[in-house]
Amino acid sequence: MAGTTPQKITTFLMFEGKAEEAMTFYLSLFDDAEVVDITRYGADGPGTEGTVQHATFSLAGQRYMCIDSALKHDFTFTPAMSLFVQCDDEAEIDRLYAALAEEGSELMPLGSYGFSARFGWVNDRFGVSWQLNLPA
């Protein structure tokens, strides 16, 4: 992104040992996706050696950050905060919904709810919430 203005606000995802697995999965879903930077915990910790101390990745031109927290927390992701994807066609929304729902949970099955051609809402296997929309 040399020569462009850096993204001012970035979605930050905190995992507990599954950051790289989640990031790799998300990268597999989008054509325009890449790991921008990744740093792993070393033998000195404080996190488990080899897990993600900090990573930045890009999906469809949007940057995200993720970490594996070295501490256990009493909270996790909530559907009150979700990633909203505008899909280009039926094939894309079907593919993304199937992949994200696998081992996850369906909040709203793919369907027509009156506000778009098709819509679906899922929590993926990592607990991250995704709204998938195919505009009318």
Automatic annotation (TrEMBL):
<dbReference type="InterPro" id="IPR027259">
    <property type="entry name" value="MTase_demethylubiq_bac"/>
</dbReference>
<feature type="domain" description="PhnB-like">
    <location>
        <begin position="7"/>
        <end position="132"/>
    </location>
</feature>
<protein>
    <submittedName>
        <fullName>VOC family protein</fullName>
    </submittedName>
</protein>
<dbReference type="Pfam" id="PF06983">
    <property type="entry name" value="3-dmu-9_3-mt"/>
</dbReference>
<dbReference type="InterPro" id="IPR029068">
    <property type="entry name" value="Glyas_Bleomycin-R_OHBP_Dase"/>
</dbReference>
<dbReference type="InterPro" id="IPR028973">
    <property type="entry name" value="PhnB-like"/>
</dbReference>
<dbReference type="InterPro" id="IPR009725">
    <property type="entry name" value="3_dmu_93_MTrfase"/>
</dbReference>
